[in-house]
C-alpha cells in the first residue's frame, strides 16, 4: 500500500522553529511530526510513502534515510517546482502512486496530529465501495472551517461548505484521505484544491464517503495549536500506552521525559510537558504545558509555561518564560529574565525582559 | 561640655495623615515617616544624622499624626540614641515655619544656640555638623542645605541663587515655571533663634492684611480661598523668598546624594541610597553570605535579625528584609523591600517591588516591575496581606491590601 504526505512549503506558521528544521522534522512529543504519521502508516501495511514537498527535499531525505531502514518502508520525494495547492501534488506524484495493483492509497496533510485510525479507515472504505473516503472531525466552531455535509448513517458526503455563516453541520475535513487510484483521473496537473475542485465532483457522483475520526485531532501548524495538540496527544498516550509517560512525586499530569534527559531535585513538571533527549533540567525548576527540545538546559529555579524551547537553548536561573514564548534554536535567556510571549529567532541572547508578546529578530 | 547657650535642638517635620497621599497604598497602614528604608523607619535616618551634631540636647518630631502612632518609636529611639526624642502633635497644619513657631516655647526651653529644621521626606547624607560649622562662619540667621540638580528637574523644587564667594542666598523661588537656577533647596536648615522673630513678623503682617481686607464680602470670599490662615507660615515662600539677598540666609552645598521621598517608587531608590551609605556609617547592618551556611548576598542588603532566609536563596542588590519575614528555598530577591511578616515560598522571584506586611508570595510566582522609580507603575507595590498564588506573575502593578491574586496581572491597579 502507498501513501502521500502533503508536506508543502516553508512552514512559515511554525517559525521560528522551521527556520532551523523543515516542519515535518520538528519534534512533537519527542518525535518528528512526520514520523508519527509514517509509523502509523507502516502499522497498517503501507510500504511506500511519497512526500509532496517544495522546499529542502535533501534535508528531509537525508534525515529519513535512517528510518527507511529502521521501519522497512520506502520514502521518496515528489518535488513541486511551483506550489500546486492541495490536489496538484497528487497529479504530480501520479506515476509514483499508481502501481497497477488498483489498491487505494492514503493522502495525509502533514500538519495534522491524531490517533491515525487507518485500519478502521480501510475497513470503512471497503465497506462503502465508493471511490474516496475522507476523515472528518467534530469541531466547536465550524464557521472557521470547511464543513462536510454528509448523510449521518452511511457517511455519504453531500457537499462541502466553506466557512458557513449558518450552521450546516459540525464535521470538518480532517485532512486524512483514502483514495482509489481512479481519483487521480479527476485531477489536472495545475494548482488546484482537493476540497474545492476534486471532492465536490466525486461527491456529486455519490462516491465520496466521510468517516468520523475517533479520538483527538489537531492541526498543529502553529505554536498555539502545537501546545494544545501536545495536551491531546499526551491524553491519548495516557489511555493507549501510559508506560511511556513519566511518573514520580515531581510529576503532575501527563509528562514525556526522554530517557537521556536529566531532572534535578525539587522540580515540579507537568501537566502536558515533553522534555527531549539530552536535556538538563536543574533543581527547583517548574515546567508546565511546554515542549523542551533536544539539548536544552533549564537552569535552577526557572519557571516555564505554555511555551516551546527550541533545540540547544538555555533558560537562565530564576527566568520566567510563558504565554506562547517560542525560542528558536540556540537561544539563550539570561538569568532572571521574564519573557511574556516572546518569539525569538535562532541564535539570540535575551538580556532584557520581554513584558509583552513581541518578535525578537 | 561647653556652656549651655551652645546647645543645639533638632526639629524634624513629619507631616500628617492627610499629607503623603502619593505614598498610598503603603501609607494606608503606617505613617509614612515610619515606613522602613534600608530596614530603618524613614525618620530614623535624619534622627541618627542628628546624633552626630555636637551638643545635641533634644530632637522634636513635629506633625499632625496621632501621638500614639509615634509613641513606641519615639521611646525606643530615645533609648537607643541616648538623646531625648519627643513627638509634638500640631492640632492642624501650620506650614513648616508655622509648625516650628507653634512649639517655640518648648524648642527654646533650654536656650539652644541653634535649631536644625529637617523635612522627614528627604533622603540625603544629612551633613549636619558640617552645615553647623559653615553656618557659624557665615554669621547669618539661617543656612540652607542645597544641591545642584539637572536643569530639567530643578523646577519641581525650590530653586535658589547663591553668591559663589560668600554663599549668601541671593534669590529664592518655589517651583518656578521658568528656569531660575539648578541649585535647589534640600529641605534641611540650621537657624539661630532669631528665626522665631522672623516667623512672627510674617504672621503679624498677615493679621494686619486680613483686617484691612474685611471691607467687602467679595474680598472676604476671595481671601478665604486664596490666603492661608494667619498662623500658617510656609518656610519657603514666606521666609526664604523675602529674606533672600538681605545677608541673613546662607547656603551649604552638598556633593552627596539627595532625593525627595514622595512616592513608594522613590522609597525603593532611597532605600538603595541609604543601604549604600551603611557601607560607611553602619557596615554592621549589611548582610553577608556566599550560599554555604547562609543565603548568597549580592551588593547592599539589609536583613532583620528575626527574618529567616533559606541558604539556597539569592538576595540583592538593594534588598531590605524586615522583621519576621520568611524567605524560602531557591527564592531570588532583587531591588525590593520586604516588609514585616512576609512569606516568600520556594523559587519565587521578586524584583523592583515592595511587598507589604504579612503578604504571601507563592511558589514559582513572580512579582516584578520595570524599575522606573518615578513612573506611576514603575515599581510593583503589594499592600498589606496580599496573597500571590503559586506561579502567578504580577508585573508593573499596585495591589491594595488584603487581595488574593490567582491570575497574572500586568499594568493594573487592583482595588
UniProtKB/TrEMBL annotation, chain A:
**Which one GO biological process term can you cite for this protein?**
GDP-mannose biosynthetic process
Pathway it works in: Nucleotide-sugar biosynthesis; GDP-alpha-D-mannose biosynthesis; GDP-alpha-D-mannose from alpha-D-mannose 1-phosphate (GTP route): step 1/1
- Domain spans labelled Mannose-1-phosphate guanyltransferase C-terminal: 251-360
Q: Which Gene3D superfamilies match?
A: Hexapeptide repeat proteins (2.160.10.10), Spore Coat Polysaccharide Biosynthesis Protein SpsA, Chain A (3.90.550.10)
InterPro entries in alphabetical order: GMPPB_C, GMPPB_N, Mannose-1P_guanyltransferase, NTP_transferase_dom, Nucleotide-diphossugar_trans
Q: EC annotation?
A: 2.7.7.13
Kindly give the PANTHER family that the UniProt entry links to this protein: SUGAR-1-PHOSPHATE GUANYL TRANSFERASE
- What domain of life does the UniProt record list for this protein's source? Eukaryota
The species this protein belongs to is Rubroshorea leprosula
Q: Which UniProt keywords apply?
A: GTP-binding, Nucleotide-binding, Nucleotidyltransferase, Transferase
Q: Name a Pfam family for this protein.
A: GMPPB_C
The enzyme class is transferase
* GO terms, molecular function: GTP binding; mannose-1-phosphate guanylyltransferase (GTP) activity
This protein's name: mannose-1-phosphate guanylyltransferase
Residue intervals of the Nucleotidyl transferase domain: 2-233
Q: So what family is this one in? A: Belongs to the transferase hexapeptide repeat family.
Automatic annotation (TrEMBL), chain B:
**What residues does the Mannose-1-phosphate guanyltransferase C-terminal domain cover?**
297-412
What parts of the sequence cross the membrane? none
- Domain Nucleotidyl transferase: from-to ranges: 10-208
InterPro entries for the chain:
GMPPB_C, Mannose-1P_guanyltransferase, NTP_transferase_dom, Nucleotide-diphossugar_trans
Q: MF terms per GO, please?
A: nucleotidyltransferase activity
Q: Which residues form the signal peptide?
A: none
Question: Origin, by domain of life?
Answer: Eukaryota
| CDD domains attached to this UniProt entry | M1P_guanylylT_A_like_N (cd06428)
Q: Which family does it belong to?
A: Belongs to the transferase hexapeptide repeat family.
PANTHER family tied to this protein = SUGAR-1-PHOSPHATE GUANYL TRANSFERASE
Task: From the Swiss-Prot or TrEMBL record, give the protein name.
Answer: Nucleotidyl transferase domain-containing protein
Amino acid at each position: 500500500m502507498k501513501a502521500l504526505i502533503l508536506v508543502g512549503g516553508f512552514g512559515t506558521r511554525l517559525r521560528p522553529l522551521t527556520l532551523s528544521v523543515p516542519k515535518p522534522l520538528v519534534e512533537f512529543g519527542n518525535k518528528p511530526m512526520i514520523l508519527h504519521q509514517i509509523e502509523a502508516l507502516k502499522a497498517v501495511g503501507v510500504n511506500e510513502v511519497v512526500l509532496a514537498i517544495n522546499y529542502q527535499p535533501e534535508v528531509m531525505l537525508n534525515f529519513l534515510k535512517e528510518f527507511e531502514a529502521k521501519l522497512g518502508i520506502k520514502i521518496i520525494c515528489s518535488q513541486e517546482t511551483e506550489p500546486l495547492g492541495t490536489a496538484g501534488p497528487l497529479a504530480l506524484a501520479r506515476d509514483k502512486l499508481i502501481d497497477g495493483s488498483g489498491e487505494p492509497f492514503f493522502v495525509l496533510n502533514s500538519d495534522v496530529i491524531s490517533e491515525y485510525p487507518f485500519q478502521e479507515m480501510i475497513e470503512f472504505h471497503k465497506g462503502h465501495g465508493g471511490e474516496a473516503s475522507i476523515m472528518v472531525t467534530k469541531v466547536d466552531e465550524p464557521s472557521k472551517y470547511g464543513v462536510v455535509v454528509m448523510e449521518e448513517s452511511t457517511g455519504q458526503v453531500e457537499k462541502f461548505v466553506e466557512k458557513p455563516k449558518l450552521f450546516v453541520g459540525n464535521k470538518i475535513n480532517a485532512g486524512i484521505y483514502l483514495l482509489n487510484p481512479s481519483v487521480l483521473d479527476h485531477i489536472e496537473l495545475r494548482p488546484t484544491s482537493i476540497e474545492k475542485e476534486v471532492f465536490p465532483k466525486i461527491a456529486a457522483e455519490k462516491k465520496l464517503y466521510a468517516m468520523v475520526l475517533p479520538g483527538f485531532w489537531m492541526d498543529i501548524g502553529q505554536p498555539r495549536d502545537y501546545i494544545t495538540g501536545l495536551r491531546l496527544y499526551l491524553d491519548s498516550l495516557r489511555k493507549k500506552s501510559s508506560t511511556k509517560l513519566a511518573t514520580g512525586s515531581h510529576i503532575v499530569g501527563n509528562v514525556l521525559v526522554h530517557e537521556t534527559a536529566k531532572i534535578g531535585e525539587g522540580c515540579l513538571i507537568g501537566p502536558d510537558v515533553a522534555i527531549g533527549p539530552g536535556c538538563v533540567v536543574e533543581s527547583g525548576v517548574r515546567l508546565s504545558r511546554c515542549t523542551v527540545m533536544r539539548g536544552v538546559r533549564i537552569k535552577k529555579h526557572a519557571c516555564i509555561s505554555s511555551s516551546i524551547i527550541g533545540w540547544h537553548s538555555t533558560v537562565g536561573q530564576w527566568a520566567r518564560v510563558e504565554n506562547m514564548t517560542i525560542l528558536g534554536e540556540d537561544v539563550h535567556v539570561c538569568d532572571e529574565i521574564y519573557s511574556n510571549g516572546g518569539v525569538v529567532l535562532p541564535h539570540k541572547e535575551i538580556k532584557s525582559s520581554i513584558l509583552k508578546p513581541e518578535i525578537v529578530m | 561640655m561647653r556652656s549651655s547657650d551652645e546647645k543645639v535642638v533638632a526639629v524634624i517635620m513629619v507631616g500628617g495623615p492627610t499629607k503623603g497621599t502619593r505614598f498610598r497604598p503603603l501609607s494606608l497602614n503606617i505613617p509614612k515617616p515610619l515606613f522602613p528604608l534600608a530596614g530603618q523607619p524613614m525618620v530614623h535616618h535624619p534622627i541618627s544624622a542628628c546624633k552626630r551634631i555636637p551638643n545635641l540636647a533634644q530632637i522634636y518630631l513635629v506633625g499632625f499624626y496621632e501621638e500614639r502612632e509615634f509613641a513606641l518609636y519615639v521611646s525606643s529611639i530615645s533609648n537607643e540614641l541616648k538623646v531625648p526624642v519627643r513627638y509634638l502633635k500640631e492640632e492642624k497644619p501650620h506650614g513648616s515655619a508655622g509648625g516650628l513657631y507653634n512649639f517655640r516655647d518648648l524648642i527654646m526651653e533650654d536656650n539652644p544656640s541653634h535649631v536644625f529644621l529637617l523635612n522627614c521626606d528627604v533622603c540625603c547624607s544629612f551633613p549636619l555638623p558640617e552645615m553647623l560649622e559653615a553656618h557659624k562662619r557665615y554669621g547669618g540667621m539661617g543656612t540652607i542645605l542645597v544641591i545642584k540638580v539637572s536643569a530639567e528637574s530643578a523646577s519641581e523644587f525650590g530653586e535658589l541663587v547663591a553668591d559663589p564667594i560668600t554663599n549668601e542666598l541671593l534669590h529664592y523661588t518655589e517651583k518656578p515655571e521658568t528656569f531660575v537656577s539648578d541649585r535647589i533647596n534640600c529641605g534641611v536648615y540650621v537657624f539661630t533663634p532669631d528665626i522665631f522673630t522672623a516667623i512672627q513678623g510674617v504672621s503679624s503682617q498677615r493679621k494686619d492684611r486680613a483686617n484691612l481686607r474685611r471691607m467687602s464680602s467679595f474680598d472676604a470670599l476671595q481671601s478665604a480661598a486664596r490666603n492661608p490662615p494667619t498662623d500658617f507660615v510656609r518656610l519657603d515662600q514666606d521666609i526664604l523668598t523675602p529674606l533672600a539677598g538681605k545677608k541673613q540666609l546662607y547656603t551649604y552645598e552638598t556633593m552627596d546624594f539627595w532625593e525627595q521621598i514622595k512616592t513608594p517608587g522613590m522609597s525603593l531608590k532611597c532605600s538603595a541610597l541609604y543601604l549604600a551609605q551603611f557601607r560607611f556609617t553602619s557596615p554592621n547592618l549589611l548582610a553577608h553570605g556566599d550560599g554555604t551556611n547562609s543565603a548568597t548576598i549580592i551588593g547592599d542588603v539589609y536583613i532583620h535579625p528575626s527574618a529567616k532566609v533559606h541558604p539556597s536563596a539569592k538576595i540583592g542588590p538593594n534588598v531590605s528584609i524586615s522583621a519576621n519575614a520568611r524567605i524560602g528555598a531557591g527564592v531570588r530577591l532583587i531591588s525590593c523591600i520586604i516588609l514585616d511578616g512576609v512569606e516568600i515560598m520556594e523559587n519565587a522571584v521578586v524584583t523592583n517591588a515592595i511587598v507589604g506586611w504579612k503578604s504571601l508570595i507563592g511558589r514559582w510566582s513572580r512579582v516584578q516591575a520595570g524599575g522606573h522609580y518615578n513612573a506611576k507603575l514603575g515599581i510593583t507595590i503589594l499592600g498589606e496581606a496580599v496573597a500571590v498564588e503559586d506561579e502567578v506573575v504580577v508585573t508593573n502593578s499596585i495591589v491594595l491590601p488584603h487581595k488574593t491574586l490567582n491570575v497574572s496581572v500586568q499594568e493594573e491597579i487592583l482595588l
